[in-house]
Design brief:
G-protein coupled receptors family 1 profile domain-containing protein, GPCR_Rhodpsn_7TM, membrane, 2 domains, two-stranded antiparallel sheet, transmembrane helix, Rhopdopsin 7-helix transmembrane proteins, globular, mainly alpha
Length: 387
């Protein structure tokens, strides 16, 4: 009996020692790879922080302070997609870079990559819908325009198409094994081992590449025609105002499109190189290993930069954000001084005060103008704000 116990004990010690050694070695390999990806980790953390705050601000301001319009519908849809990307897709990619050889769940990998591609493709298609609407408004002003209900339908259709193009990702993506010396095995969220040797990843990559190239080409064509149309008329901005088309909205849409294309180009180039060359052909230098994961996720900039574009290009949005910040700072200051009555001064009171000041300023500057012209100017400004 004692001999059997000793034998069992002597067999268990090497097994546990070997298991511990493998686990520690895998941790060391993972930490080494994670340190190489530190620029990507910092990059994603910054994007998540700014993206969540910025897109929530966009949803609140455009949802509560703007009148219904097609432009508002597109902006709100993009903000929802961008916010979900910051809350779901980016954290999954952050975990993938923190644990490049110790990814913990195949379900999280498949689900996160699937939803990430839904948001990625959906954002591209929504921007394309925006471009089509702006093209019809400027280049086909007398044809039937897209209504608000039609804009909602087109946004829903775009998301449906995004799901259709993204669902193969739930099959292609999965756990991929990496083998190292000493029998160490690491797990990465990448192309699933079950399909990595088949033709399906190649076909799916070709399909996605075709979708993005088609969207890029359509956007460049549409906005080239829009810009040429605007430049073909003298005093184009006054002409757009007479047509009740806000030129600032067009500039904002162009800026959104440029940011989208620029942020997506690195990932598309890398995917094309990997697909057509059947693997990564770049040298494995420390600089390349640090930059490749970052460039592959540069498209996330598109989910964060839109609030900054609105802040720069939209006067009304900028004014509301500025007044809101002033109200928050004043409320905090008054609360610190114990002025409870002053702290209850609401944001709507701030907006009303600003509107009254703007009204009196406009009235005083237009005393010499006929009242009919002044009312027409006010109606024109209101229509431009909501175009």
């Amino acid at each position: 009996c004692s001999t059997s116990k000793f034998a069992a004990r002597s067999m268990s010690v090497p097994y546990n020692t070997t298991t511990t050694a493998i686990f520690e070695t895998l941790e060391e390999l993972n930490d080494k790879k994670a340190r190489q990806r530190m620029p990507t980790i910092v990059f994603l953390c910054i994007l998540i922080a700014f993206g969540v705050i910025g897109n929530i601000v966009v949803l609140v301001v455009y949802g509560l302070r703007y009148r219904p319009s097609t432009f508002r519908s597109y902006i709100l849809t993009l903000a929802v997609i961008d916010l979900l990307s910051c809350l779901i897709a980016m954290p999954v990619e952050l975990v993938d870079n923190l644990y490049p050889l110790q990814f913990f769940s195949e379900e999280v990998c498949k689900g996160g990559r699937f939803l990430g591609h839904v948001f990625k493709i959906g954002s591209a298609l929504i921007i394309l819908v925006m471009a089509v609407g702006r093209f019809r408004k400027i280049c086909r002003p007398f044809s039937k325009q897209i209504s608000i209900n039609q804009a909602h339908f087109l946004c829903a259709l775009a998301m449906g198409l995004a799901i259709f193009f993204a669902w193969p990702n739930a099959i292609v993506q999965g756990m991929r094994k990496h083998y190292f010396d000493g029998g160490v095995i690491g797990y990465d969220c990448s192309v699933d081992d079950d399909v990595s040797k088949t033709i399906y990843p190649f076909i799916y990559a070709i399909v996605l590449f075709t979708v993005y190239i088609s969207v890029f080409s359509s956007l460049v064509t549409l906005y080239t025609l829009i810009i040429l149309r605007i430049r073909s008329h003298n005093n184009a901005e006054q002409k757009l105002k007479r047509m009740k088309i806000n030129p600032r909205v067009t500039k904002v849409m162009i800026a959104i499109t440029v940011a989208f294309i620029v942020s997506y180009i690195p990932d598309c180039i890398m995917d094309a190189n990997y697909t057509f060359n059947q693997g990564n052909t770049l040298p494995s230098t420390p600089l390349v290993l640090a930059l490749l994961p970052l460039l592959a996720r540069a498209y996330f900039i598109n989910n964060v930069i839109n609030p900054l574009i609105y802040l720069i290009g939209e006067t009304k949005f900028r004014k509301i954000v500025k007044l809101s910040m002033i109200w928050v700072l004043r409320s905090l200051q008054r609360r610190d001084t114990g002025d409870v009555f002053a702290a209850s001064f609401s944001a709507s009171d701030t907006f009303r005060t600003e509107r009254m000041a703007t009204y009196h300023k406009t009235s005083s500057s237009n005393k010499s103008q006929p009242s009919g012209n002044h009312s027409g100017q006010v109606r024109q400004e209101i229509s431009q704000t909501n175009t």
